[in-house]
Amino acid sequence: MNDHREVPELLGSTLRDLRLQHGLTLRDMADKTGLSTGFLSKVERGFSQPSINNLHKICYVLHIAIDDLAAPRRDSQRPEHPHPAAPGSPLIKKGQRSLIYSVNHMVKLESIFSASSSYKLDVLTLTGGKVEYASKHRYEEVGIVSQGRMEIQFETGQTYLMDEGDVLQIPADTEHTVRNLSESPCVSFWFKLMDQGDDGEV
Asked: How far apart are CA 56 and CA 121, in angstroms?
């Protein structure tokens, strides 16, 4: 099966600029992420697209939220929402979300609100099937399942099964794996609390 990924345009150049702002070399990034310098170089030059797991690793080292890489959806100006949200508007329509990452139409992460320095809000959609990915970030987050069922396992081995309406708190710096174990789509909303002193990523 072909691995089709959608990531924001200019992702590579943005990551390169952020790396240089932090005074990091490609070797530094490789040492901190566990990824090869060759792969990181290809990502920065736009010749390779990172998986969502690897993108989280890169963002963790750069002390940024994966939301900070989001780009406004060009195709998301759906007929019912033909215009982007007006600056300063308290209302954000479903079609006005910004795409962060999409792979094979199985995992889609969208930013709903990222303007605040104290919190961010994302929506994670996992299609049917045993879809999973791992993540670790520098901030606390709280998630609620709005559709389907989700399993989240902490690096400590603790496993939590979330049904519709269930809420889970994930402490900062806790590696966790997110899974959809059913054949039905799972949709969850994640509040990222950025007041731990870091700009923060699911």
From this structure: 16
Q: pTM (2 decimals)?
A: 0.76
Give the helix/strand (H/E) hosting 177.
Answer: strand 176-180
By CB neighbour count within 10 A (0-12 exposed, 13-18 middle, 19+ buried), where does 122 fall?
Answer: buried
The rounded distance, in Å, linking the Cα atoms of 197 and 157 is 27
Q: Which CATH class is domain 5-65?
A: mainly alpha
CATH 2.60.120.10: which residues of the chain? Answer: 69-78+94-193
What architecture (CATH level 2) is domain 69-78+94-193? Sandwich (2.60)
Neighbours of 4 (CB within 10 A): 11
Tell me if 96 sits within 8 A of 74, measured CB to CB: no
Report the number of secondary-structure helices (H) and strands (E) in the chain.
Answer: 4, 12
Tally of CB atoms within 10 A around 78: 12
Give the pLDDT confidence of 81-124 residue by residue, as tens digits: 445 566 677 888 888 888 888 876 788 889 998 877 788 899 99
